[in-house]
Design a protein that fits this description.
Length: 232
Amino acid sequence: MTAVHHKTLVLLDHPDLSTSRINRALATALGDAPDLTVHDLRRLYPDGHIDLAAERAAVEAAENIVLQYPTHWYAPPAFLKTWLDEVLVRGWAYGTGAPGALAGKTLRIATSTGGAGEAYSPDGFHGWDYNDILIPLQATARRLGMHWLSPFILHGVRDLTDEQLQYLAQDYRNLLSLRAVPEPVQAMPARTNTDRTTTMKSMSTTAYGGPKVIQEVHLPTPEPAGRAGNNH
Ligand SMILES: Cc1cc2nc3c(=O)[nH]c(=O)nc-3n(C[C@H](O)[C@H](O)[C@H](O)COP(=O)(O)O)c2cc1C
């Protein structure tokens, strides 16, 4: 691979971005951020046919991969799953005996939920911690030899004011602009409850006293983790 044209690739999937409030604001905030490319998948591939070579080239050119989507039935929308299924094939992403094409890159999830942050807990309305809902994607990162970065999750998005949303969208841009320096990957152990101690979870209210935001700060040092106690 020769020139690296961008360092962070955001794969954005929303069934209809024209009706989106949250993900559209997040994507808009990314704007022309340096070293950052956004692939709005449904705009790029309205007929559903993904240019696999182009997507793989974009992945190879990036150091950091971000999957951005609204949470739909506790999962990414279907086209992002199609992207994963079709782009991440054996012989390129894994299965050659050598590190796959994504090994050593970072993976971050950026998502929004209608459900409130406190509803995502074993005792809460949704019955699961949101991190548990992300396990299939975390397992995928592990399988590919990628570094899992703490997710950027906006919960309870219906309660966000426009002002809060703008603020959080800037947070998102700042977070993605930080150069992530992953910890060395050892054997990529499966996550256990003990592993959670490596992730600092801070919950607080926004400067606006607005809805609860959960920002999991697992950004590798030495960069600052952005605004601690990020709020959604
Ligand atoms: C089909 C569908 C399924 C949804 N499933 C969930 C869900 O499982 N959990 C949740 O908290 N919110 C769920 N929501 C709410 C969305 O996450 C929320 O509307 C979205 O994050 C808002 O982002 P947007 O303005 O970019 O569309 C769902 C919404 C739709 C339309």
